[in-house]
TrEMBL record:
Pfam families: Kazal_1
Protein name: Kazal-like domain-containing protein
Lineage: Eukaryota, Metazoa, Chordata, Craniata, Vertebrata
Residue ranges of every copy of the Kazal-like domain listed in the record: 24-80
Any GO CC annotation of this UniProt entry: extracellular region
Keywords tagged on the record: Disulfide bond, Secreted, Signal
Principal location listed in the UniProt entry: secreted
Gene3D superfamilies: 3.30.60.30
Stored InterPro entries: Kazal-type_SerProtInhib, Kazal_dom, Kazal_dom_sf
Superkingdom assignment: Eukaryota
Secretion signal span: 1-23
Source organism of the structure: Cnephaeus nilssonii (Northern bat)
Cell compartments where the protein resides: Secreted
Length: 80
């Protein structure tokens, strides 16, 4: 019983680690936000950038990524 519990915890820890590693650097289609006249809404759909900043939604993430010259990538969806 103890061995199966340890195995289960180890498996869960490895799953969490690798799911975070695999999701890093995902691509987001920012084509619809390329026009500087487009304003972002206040909807809440957090995006975590590779700079460690949580952006409120896709629009604000795309604006920051464009402003950085492509240096900011999506780390994962959700808060950082």
């Amino acid at each position: 019983m103890k061995i199966s519990g340890v195995f289960l915890l180890l498996s869960l820890a490895l799953f969490c680690f690798f799911s975070g590693v695999i999701s890093q650097g995902e691509k987001v289609d920012c084509a619809e936000f390329g026009d500087p006249k487009v304003y972002c809404t206040r909807e809440s759909n957090p995006h975590c950038g590779s700079d460690g900043q949580t952006y409120g939604n896709k629009c604000s993430f795309c604006k920051a990524a464009a402003k950085s010259g492509g240096k900011i990538n999506l780390k994962h969806y959700g808060t950082c």
